[in-house]
Specification:
about 350 residues; alpha/beta; Spore Coat Polysaccharide Biosynthesis Protein SpsA, Chain A; 2 domains; eight-stranded mixed sheet; 8 strands; globular
Length: about 350
């Protein structure tokens, strides 16, 4: 059954768009959480876009009697950016609320997103991606959760800007017209498509609101290999965009990010980047140490271990992206002209 639809609904207050791929159990938890929202969900449409699912997502959803105004759109696999865009195009609400299929909205989540919109069509509400209180994440993902909460704290105390760089696609809302005006997610990107969207929304005049009341409990944990892949994708993205000089953060963001690192991490990076044999051995040793700290519940030491691994892999990717560690160090040692001349 490719579509599950309710009666026609011409003007919902909001459209919740959920991309999904072979996570039917997690998806059903998200949908059941939407059924228990404090907001009147009879005024909200929910659009699930199945991205080439092979786990009988359509049949599993059709087998339940949902109280939601639910539409399921089943499409060939095309990637999460295209899938989200398709859901937005099918939506009829003035406001789009994007949730991932592993982000379970707390009861007040949808109400908080709708309340954040002031009617001028230019507000992007960044929801609070919180650790699932029912979850048991591995150590590397505990570090990710801690890192995200640290970023929220910095945005709340004013030491980090609330802007397009802070946009995470798992829990946010945006006026539909504004989303379509910037042509949605970039379907050519394989990673960081949410950051790219945030920057383009910012350039279009959007204002960003950190909405800590719009809580989404995140329970989708990556395995260790995939987590390391995130570090590499982030590093390559930052290197590429810095080279393009297309976005306001550019090289200054890379420079500040490096000098803010712990001295031990910076020393390790200096000695290990481009050492193709020594780097993985060192990362393996750090993983062993972090695992031991985790078993002993020494959380600060565990976080430091996984944070060091992430930093090394990230900076190796940045070095690969700009043309090697030697060129990267030239810039980070204050020769800002080195990179622009090398890539002129």
């Amino acid at each position: 059954m490719p579509h599950i639809t309710t009666e026609p609904f011409s003007s919902p207050d909001a459209s919740v768009v959920i991309p999904t791929h072979n996570r039917v159990a997690s998806l059903k938890r998200v949908l059941h959480a939407l059924e228990t929202q404090t907001y009147d969900m009879s005024r909200v449409e929910v659009i699930v876009v199945a991205d080439g699912c092979t786990d009988d997502t359509a049949a599993a959803l059709a087998a339940e009697d949902w109280s939601l105004r639910l539409t399921l759109i089943d499409r060939p696999q095309s990637g999460v950016a295209t899938t989200r865009n398709h859901g937005a195009e099918a939506a009829r609400g003035r406001l789009l609320v994007f949730l991932d299929d592993d982000v379970r909205p707390a009861p007040g989540c949808i109400a908080a997103h709708i309340a954040a919109q002031d009617g001028d069509g230019a507000t992007v509400s960044i929801g609070h991606l919180s650790a699932d209180p029912e979850g048991n994440p591995p150590g590397w993902w505990r570090w990710m959760e801690w890192q995200l909460e640290k970023q929220y704290s910095e945005m709340l105390d004013g030491s980090r800007p609330i802007d397009g760089l802070a946009l995470y696609s798992g829990n946010f809302s945006v006026p539909r017209d504004l989303f379509l005006d910037v042509e949605g997610f970039n379907t050519e990107l394989k990673a960081c498509e949410d950051t790219d969207l945030g920057i383009r929304l910012q350039k279009a005049g959007a204002r960003f609101h950190l909405n800590m009341d719009a809580v989404g409990w995140h329970s989708g944990y990556h395995d260790y290999t995939a987590w390391k892949g995130i570090a590499r994708k982030d590093g390559l993205w930052d290197a590429e965009e810095a080279l393009k000089m297309a976005y306001p953060f550019g090289w200054r963001e890379l420079l500040d990010g490096y000098h803010d690192r712990h001295p031990l991490v910076k020393t390790a990076a200096r000695r290990l980047l481009d050492r193709k044999t020594l780097l993985p051995i060192s990362v393996g040793a750090m993983k062993l140490g972090a695992s031991v700290f985790g078993m002993l519940r020494l959380r600060e030491a565990e976080r430091f271990g996984y944070g060091g691994i992430y930093a090394l892999l990230y900076w190796q990717a940045v070095a690969d992206g700009v043309g090697g560690a030697a060129l990267l160090w030239r810039y980070l040692d204050a020769d800002e002209s080195a990179l622009t001349e090398a890539h002129a």
